[in-house]
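Sharing a chain and its predicted structure for anyone who wants a worked example. Both blocks are below, sequence first, tokens second.
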Amino acid sequence: MCSVCWFLKSTKNMKIENQTIISEFLLLGLSEQLEQQLILFGLFLVMYLVTAVGNISIILAIGSDSHLHSPMYFFVANLSFADICFISTTVPKMLANIWNQSQTISYEGCLTQMHFFMTFGALDDFLLGVMAYDRYVAICRPLHYATVMNPGICVLLLALCWILTNFAAFLHTFLMAGLTFCAENSIPHFFCDLTPLLSLSCSDTSTNQLMLFIVGSMVLTAPLTLIVISYVHIISAILRIPSTSGRWKAFSTCGSHLTVVSLFYGAAIGVYLCPPSTHSAGKDRIAAVFYTVVTPMLNPFIYSLRNRDMKTALGKLFLSRKVLSS
């Protein structure tokens, strides 16, 4: 994070020498009415705490239970970590602005928020793709599962996810830092997203738009393609299982992942892939709330309520904490 801040500050100093005016942006948020802001503050605070506690519990349960030390739960734990970071890039600043009755965010702070929002949003995306591949190997190639998904391969896949997401985020941040922002600085959103920022620039944004299309398409469609291909093979393999109970048991291992994929991509497509003619500031903000806040909050419940092993591990975790505190 420090390297990102240093880069943005040095770029900002160069822009000041070239007489760039904008030094901060205004986040207009979800409402300008005080009564609604107080309701939103309480609602988002509760959602943030539920998300943090739920995902931390998932990570602790997986770490403390040896039965969950498998590739699938390794990626679930990393998805929970990414969800905590993802929601933490936007909601705390929103809560602070409501509490202080302020809408401002600094130039460096805005681009830093945008950078980490893209990093952890894309990391969620890539992890869901890797998890689909893990389920494909487990169901379609069970005899080779231990070899294909060995610890070294799992760490390598995780490292690849981090490298690709950071590359995409740094590329967009670098290009954004090269733009000039003149007079208009109001962002009709509750966080600094890439598209609203591009619309405020008085520079030529054609390169940014091109990279947004190319990199954005790769980040969204590559994992989604992997997910679709994996589940085509998974469903084909499940249908070949002779017994109904066997088919249900095999499919139940994918139920949680499919639910999370549906929530994540349904919201992401609504925000980023719908035609511009269907967009409005209000609809975009509602879709963004679902994508950035609701989905990370629901993920722990989806994995714990639909998974017997996870429920057992969470029960042991909370029981041990209760014993230690008593």
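Comments welcome. The radius of gyration is 21 Å.
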